[in-house]
Amino acid sequence: MTARRTRVEPHIYRRPDGALEVGLRDTDGRQRWFRAGRRITDARRLRDELLGRRARGEPLRAPAAVRGAPTLGEAAELWLSEAQGHLSAWTVRRYREAARYLGPLRARRVGSIEPSDLAAQIAQMRREVSDSTIRMALTVVRRSYRWVARRQGLVFTSPVDLLEATERPSQLPARERRRLNREELAALLEAAPEGRWRTLFEFAAVTGARLGEVLAVRWRDLDLDDRPRVRIEWQIDRDRVLRRPKTARSVRELPLPVGTARRLLVWRARTPWSQPDDFVFASENGTPLDRSNVRRAFSRAVRTARLPDGRPAFPEALGARQGPVPTFHSLRHTAATLLLAEGAALTEASRHLGHATPNVTLAVYARELQSAEAERARRDLVERAFRGFTEPASMEALWKRYGSASASTGGNWRET
Q1: Percentages helix, strand, coil for the chain, rounded to the nearest 5?
Q2: 8-state DSSP, 410
Q3: Over the stretch 101-124, which tens digit does the pLDDT of each residue have?
Q4: Worst-scoring range by mean pLDDT, 69-73, 92-96, 249-253, 379-383?
Q5: Do 119 and 163 meet the contact criterion of CB atoms below 8 Å apart?
Q6: Angle CA 303–304–310, to nearest 5
Q7: Is 278 in contact with 152 (CB distance < 8 Å)?
Q8: 161-183, pLDDT tens digit by residue?
Q9: Can you name the residues that pair with 110 across neighbouring β-strands?
Q10: CA 297 from centre of chain
Q11: 3-state DSSP call for residue 196?
Q12: CA-based nearest residue to 83, from 74, 72, 92
């Protein structure tokens, strides 16, 4: 007779169909089995979680608890109602829309949904919506399980954590972050109409602030005296609602270049909205600018920007296949890249950008950081390797020998 399960390692067994299960005795002495997918790492994680739960005297699976748990739809709504305090209305709407595609699973009680049930629903969703919507729906499932565990004390393993790699939606491809070099940035600012748009784009480039943060700045947040700086304390969300940034590190004070401060002073003298409580970049009626208007103005500047020799600064915006077209968020990437290229420490760059931790900055800009460090290392190497040939005394001797001839021939040096 073929064995029903084959032992793989302590408490982990393989079923005849290849799936893994974790087998443990519950606190009531009954043997219980838990499906763990097909990856041994998932099985080990589940086993360790169950062993920890049993060590604390908690039941591994209490049928009564499952019967008393809310449905997935109820738990999702409870979580989203609570999350409205720190999520934007736009984000909450997207989660609610994605949750609708969970279909009949919404009527199932939390704790009763098997990974195979969720995998079947994902297969159905793939015929109706994009992978990004599926990812949001899975986030709803995971957060709903977590909410039930924290608020109601009912701990169940989320079926999302036990999905096979082939059952999950595909991961988003890593998008190339379009950043501007100094020449491109200068061309963009030159192409922007003088006044509101030129000032706004320059302010965004030197601060690296997010679009919502830029639009929320008021004149009272600026100090434009001898040591100009700006305090980033608010943001305008996609529904044009003024709200606090989502992380404490996003509230920050940033230095401003003197040139940018002078441009802001000129703009304040020109705009009718110049009182301390007015928005720096206000619309004609004094309200915060609409995001779509900012993006349209930015796209126009990108299309019309020209390099000093007259060539388009961004040919990709005119149809050439030369990489991604810059977006307003490219100004944030540009600020990060220029700071790192100038030798800014990771912690300083993270503070400037308002990231939650330096690890976020490292994860997003690892390539730029490595490139900046490699460039500095190459320069140091060249200096050390050729120091004996490039001393000031040697250059002085060369200038005495060739300098006058170079000046008289327009810079064409000749051996004598």
Answers
A1: 55, 10, 35
A2: T
A3: 999 999 888 988 888 889 999 999
A4: 379-383
A5: yes
A6: 120
A7: no
A8: 988 888 888 765 555 678 899 99
A9: none
A10: 24
A11: helix
A12: 92
AA identity, residue 21: E
Pick from 342, 341, 363: which is nearest to 350 by CA? 363
- Tell me what pLDDT residue 172 has: 55
DSSP annotation of 229 reads E
Distance CA 392, CA 86 (A): 60
N-term to C-term CA, the chain:
98
Residue 403 pLDDT grade (very low, low, confident, very high; cuts 50, 70, 90): low
- Token look-up 């490039």 returns 390
Looking up tokens 């109602």, which residue turns up?
81
For residue 213, how many C-alpha atoms fall within 13 Å in the half-sphere facing its CB?
A: 25
Residues 34/157, Cβ–Cβ less than 8 Å: yes
- The position carrying tokens 């919506």 is 129
pTM: 0.64
Burial 230-258 (b: 16+ CB within 10 A, else e): bebbbbbbeeeeeeebeeebbebebebee
Is residue 389 over pLDDT 60? no
Strands 252-255 and 20-25: unpaired
- How many residues does the structure list for the chain? 416
Place of tokens 């079947």: 120
